[in-house]
Amino acid sequence: MNILILGSGGREHTFAWKITQSPLCKSLYVAPGNSGTAQIATNVDISVTDFEAIKSLVLEKRIDMVVVGPEDPLVQGIHDCFLNDEALKHIAVIGPEKAAAELEGSKEFAKEFMYRHNIPTAAYKSFNALNVEEGYAFLETLSPPYVLKADGLAAGKGVLILNDLQEAKTELKNMLVDAKFGDASSKVVIEEFLDGIELSCFVLTDGKNYKILPTAKDYKRIGEGDTGLNTGGMGAVSPVSFATPEFLNKIEERIVKPTISGLQKDNLPYNGFVFIGLIKVGDDPKVIEYNVRMGDPETEVVLPRLKNDLVEIFQAIANQTLDNIDINIDERTATTVMLVSGGYPEAYEKGKEISGVETITNSIPFHAGAKLENGKIVTSGGRVMAITSFGNDYEEALKKSYQNIEKLHFDKMYYRKDIGFDL
Ligand code: AMP
Ligand code: GLY
Fold first, then answer.
1. Whose CA is nearest to atom 3 of ligand 1?
2. Do 293 and 75 form a contact (C-beta atoms < 8 A)?
3. Which of 35, 59, 71, 150 has CA atoms 20 to 30 A from the CA of 42?
4. pLDDT tens for each residue of 228-286
5. Cβ(383)–Cβ(394) under 8 Å?
6. Of the bound ligands, which one is closest to the alpha carbon of residue 154?
């Protein structure tokens, strides 16, 4: 098969690494890709949302399957675009159709879905510029901290958690009236604050059947001890120690099953990954959010633990035969530590040469914001490279990642030295 992956992060390098291990894959293309994918596949410099250019590439290279990494093209309807085109409709697209991608594209849509299907989540109300006064009144009925969420996609920045009532009101106005997050905050969901520890659950579905992948926990804050600004993710571990069989059973019964049956009842066609962001409140799981794709850097610890042929799984998703697949998971622990550009998640410099990648042993370097320039690997983004390792426990796996990081260098390189500290 000829396969195209859309995206350019560590997640997509991990997909490429896994897909090239499959005997079913003949040629692999990545658009736009990075320095890691360039070493194992053919990069094509096309944006993930340029559907016309993607169509031309798919026809020219006789692509049989498109694996969509990030949410943007899914929310913009790339799957529908293929289905509605005579020349493309036979091609397998891994990722939900536009209507189902709204689970990530609109927080209000996701909350309504959860309420309709009795899926445990925080209580909420949503507001727009016309009823902002009601929003203030609602905030007054809550106790701090206050959770405000821009309804639409805001590149991971659309959630504010505030301790002060007056500040919460001001931010609500900034979002609704002054378009703090542009169109994405023309609606705002205000919800109950949930106090607990977070984890992520990943589900594969063909719309009818589902398979649960290993859980993972990511570390979102820039600073050690989970302090400072939110990032895309500074590291991850899998499995998650507090996700006991009993707790996993609650997740499956109370959340995964009603989610999959809810998609069917609501006629939301879904072929791909459902990423369920969860919080453990007491002994019970509650949903914080749905994403319609894999997580990054969670992919860098989840996929290496998957022993199956990923292309075979994707074929089963496309053919609605996922029930025929037995998922096999490596029992070992996987950890990943993200190297980032100094300054990230605020302003940072690019184009710094990365040295030492070829000296890595016993870990896998998944490239993210890194590209090839005159034969050298240079930084091209905030999150630069994720160093994944296996071990019998967190300690052993993390030790390997950190030992290898010692051998890597680029100007102003930063990473958290405490991944897994809370487990
Ligand atoms: P989201 O973009 O929905 O994943 O939210 C970003 C982060 O905000 C989450 O990973 C949580 O840490 C936090 N968060 C979101 N909703 C809540 C909530 N209702 N209670 C507590 N924390 C939350
Ligand atoms: N690591 C969180 C995400 O991919 O959204």
1. 289
2. no
3. 71
4. 988 999 999 999 999 999 999 999 999 999 999 999 999 999 999 999 999 999 999 99
5. no
6. 1
107 within 8 A of 151, measured Cβ to Cβ: yes
Whether 298 lines ligand 2, by a CB cut-off of 6 Å, is yes
Sequence length of the chain is 423
Long-range contacts of 47-50 (CB under 8 A, 24+ apart): 48/6, 48/7, 48/8, 48/72, 48/73, 49/73, 49/76
Give the model confidence (pLDDT) of 388-420 as tens digits: 999 999 999 999 999 999 999 999 999 999 999
Q: Which atom of ligand 2 is nearest to the CA of 156?
A: 5
Q: Which of 298, 300, 419 to mutate to test the pocket of ligand 2 (most atoms within 8 A of CB)?
A: 298
Q: What is the C-alpha separation between 391 and 396, in angstroms, rounded?
A: 5
Cβ–ligand 2 contact at 289 (below 6 Å): no
Atom of ligand 2 nearest to the CA of 296: 4
Ligand nearest to the CA of 158: 1
Q: What are phi and psi of 33, to 5 degrees?
A: 75, -175
* Residue 109 phi, psi dihedral angles, 5° rounding: -60, -45
Tokens of 261: 């049956």
Residue 249 CB coordination number (10 Å)? 10
Report CA(14)–ligand 1 centroid distance (Å).
26
